[in-house]
């Protein structure tokens, strides 16, 4: 629990610092890479607390801050209507969850109702790739 709390504070501080900086050069990625949500399935009814599993093909996962070709780390976009700006770090807030430790799943707690989930893979600096790598947006119904 302490590690997750410290990671959240560090991610928020890093995102705030990067957001104050000028537009960053976007990293390229393999054109055949694909990011997707393994589970839950689109349209699923889930309990308030449930597991979201991330999938990735054509690239590898590496923690934030580790610069390695053809790698990135996941960001889970929750109820996001407008994608993060090109050349800017993805914000860290209740709608943009960072997985800078290289995680490939998370336990998520949402309020009852209908929500959308989408993954975005970003580079070592939390910046979306030059050609954004996004999953299909899914809808879940929380009991």
- The radius of gyration computed from the alpha-carbon positions, rounded to a whole number of angstroms, is 15 Å
> Largest sheet, if any?
7 strands, mixed
Instruction: Please give the number of β-strands.
Output: 10
Number of helices: 1
Unreliable stretches covering 5 or more consecutive residues: none
User: Order of helices and strands, N to C?
Assistant: HEEEEEEEEEE
The coarse overall form would be: globular
Straight-line N-to-C gap:
26 Å
CATH topology: Immunoglobulin-like
CATH class bucket:
Mainly Beta
Any idea how many domains? 1
Helical percent range? 10-25%
Protein model, in words:
By secondary structure, the protein is mainly beta. It contains one helix and ten strands, in the order H-E-E-E-E-E-E-E-E-E-E. The chain has one helix at 2-19, and strands at residues 34-39, 45-46, 49-57, 60-61, 71-78, 96-98, 105-109, 113-122, 128-134, 138-142. The strands form two sheets. Strands 2, 4, 5, 6, 8, 9 and 10 form a seven-stranded mixed sheet that branches. Strands 1-3-7 form a three-stranded antiparallel sheet, with no helix packed on it. It is globular. The mean pLDDT is 89.
